[in-house]
């Protein structure tokens, strides 16, 4: 076996592993099945690519998007690694190259769509050629609770068996417990080694407050961040317009953003936010996907976010440059009560309701955390840490407002 660090330097040209990568690489090289949960951009691909190169044989990678496969194959070939893909967009020449390379055992990393692998002819052919490792990327697609459910992903447990019960690594950025347990059950027969890394963003200061005088709470937070770029999330289109107006009157450069605006106005406000300094974007959750502005200095929630996942994604848009960034989330007991009611009154299946109830309970528990908020947050994602020193509870101690009893009444209804 070749030393993983040597491959990291010589093939990929990286000076060091990122958090979590080395342990996962070593577990794969030790022959273990692995479920790796790391945020987007953390470097999950390396966790199956590097072990492949450290030993012999073929790795088959399942990926849901043809565009993603293409990027990865191009990047690997650029590093001088024999790689290819099997998907519906291949031309005959590409197919021939792939088939020949697999037959001659030159192929090292082969990407395949789940639809292709659902075809028994394909898996039998691959099994005959010999597959060493099955890597299932975006493994949350196996779960009905996720936003990305793909029925073909449900077949992958069977594919793994048809490939001779091959060693498997599943990777995803989605950390919630319901999704994780779906991945475990559907893809693995025995529990894989679980790795959860890199969810902490220590430069983000965390704070949550029960709404008392919400406007005053919000304005005093924003006042500490005059002339900085930031986002305020509101729960309705109307609320964004109203708040953007009152902030403008208070001397901020504040702009609304929501899906009900004309496409041109929306694009214009987004451009201003991206290009100018010190703009406050007052937005619904429609804003932010794919926005990569490194110097967003604060994110505020004027109302309870949808879930812990949504909360973390939204505050995660601050401080991408690694410099300190501030967050504040305001929540009201009314928000919680309404949310609870919406779940109970929806036509969703019981199992779905159960999952949504659990998610709401976890969010409320975060709002009412008794000590370090970051510990509570990261524990939800499965990570354990020391008290952070950079959240409201570490800095100010437990808040004076005690909503716990009230909140419990709502949740136990
Ligand atoms: P993920 O799948 O977790 O979202 P990727 O595997 O696409 O992340 O990697 C994100 C980026 O990080 C890629 O450009 C990759 O080359 C880079 N990267 C991965 N590992 C390292 C490392 N150890 N050092 C530097 N860059 C890395
Ligand atoms: Mg990825
Ligand atoms: Zn803390």
UniProtKB/TrEMBL annotation:
Documented EC number(s): 5.6.2.4
Cofactors required: Mg(2+); Zn(2+)
Top-level class of the enzyme under EC nomenclature: isomerase
Catalytic reaction(s) noted: Couples ATP hydrolysis with the unwinding of duplex DNA by translocating in the 3'-5' direction
Residue ranges of every copy of the Helicase ATP-binding domain listed in the record: 25-193
An MF annotation (GO) of this entry: DNA helicase activity
Domain Helicase C-terminal: 214-361
Keywords: ATP-binding, DNA damage, DNA recombination, DNA repair, DNA-binding, Helicase, Hydrolase, Isomerase, Metal-binding, Nucleotide-binding, Zinc
Transmembrane segments: none
Keyword Isomerase: yes
Family: Belongs to the helicase family. RecQ subfamily.
Protein name, as recorded: DNA helicase RecQ
UniProt source species: Microvirga arsenatis
Gene that encodes it: recQ
């Amino acid at each position: 076996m070749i030393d993983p660090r040597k491959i990291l330097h010589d093939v990929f040209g990286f000076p060091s592993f990122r958090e979590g990568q080395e342990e996962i690489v070593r577990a794969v090289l030790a022959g273990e099945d692995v479920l790796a949960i790391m945020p987007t951009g953390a470097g999950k691909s390396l966790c199956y690519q590097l072990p492949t190169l450290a030993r012999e044989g073929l790795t088959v990678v399942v990926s849901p998007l043809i565009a993603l496969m293409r990027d990865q194959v191009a990047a690997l070939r650029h590093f001088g690694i024999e790689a290819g893909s099997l998907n519906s967009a291949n031309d005959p020449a590409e197919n021939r190259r792939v088939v020949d390379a697999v037959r001659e055992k030159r192929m090292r990393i082969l990407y395949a769509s789940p639809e292709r692998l659902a075809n028994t002819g394909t898996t039998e052919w691959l099994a005959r050629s010999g597959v060493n490792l099955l890597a299932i990327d975006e493994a949350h697609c196996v779960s009905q609770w996720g936003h990305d459910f793909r029925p073909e992903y449900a077949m992958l447990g069977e594919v793994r068996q048809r490939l001779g019960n091959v060693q498997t690594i599943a990777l995803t950025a989605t950390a919630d417990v319901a999704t994780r347990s779906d991945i475990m059950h559907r893809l693995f027969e025995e529990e894989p080694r679980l790795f959860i890394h890199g969810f902490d963003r220590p430069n983000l200061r965390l704070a949550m407050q029960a709404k008392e005088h919400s406007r005053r709470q919000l304005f005093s937070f924003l006042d500490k961040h005059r002339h900085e770029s930031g986002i305020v999330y509101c729960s309705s289109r109307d609320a964004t317009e109203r708040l953007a107006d009152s902030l403008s009157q208070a001397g901020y450069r504040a702009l609304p953003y929501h899906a009900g605006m004309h496409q041109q106005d929306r694009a214009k406000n987004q451009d201003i936010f991206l290009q100018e300094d010190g703009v406050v974007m007052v937005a619904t959750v429609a804003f932010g996907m794919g926005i990569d502005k490194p110097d967003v200095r604060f994110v505020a929630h004027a109302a309870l976010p949808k879930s812990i996942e949504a909360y973390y994604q939204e505050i995660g848009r601050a401080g991408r440059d690694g410099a300190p960034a501030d967050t504040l989330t305001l929540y009201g007991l009314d928000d919680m009560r309404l949310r609870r009611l919406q779940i109970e009154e929806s036509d969703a299946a019981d199992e779905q309701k159960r999952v949504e109830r659990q998610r709401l309970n976890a969010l409320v528990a975060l709002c009412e955390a008794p000590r370090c908020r970051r510990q509570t947050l990261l524990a939800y994602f499965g990570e354990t840490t020391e008290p952070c020193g950079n959240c409201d509870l570490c800095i100010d101690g437990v808040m004076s407002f005690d909503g716990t009893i009230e909140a419990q009444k709502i949740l136990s209804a």
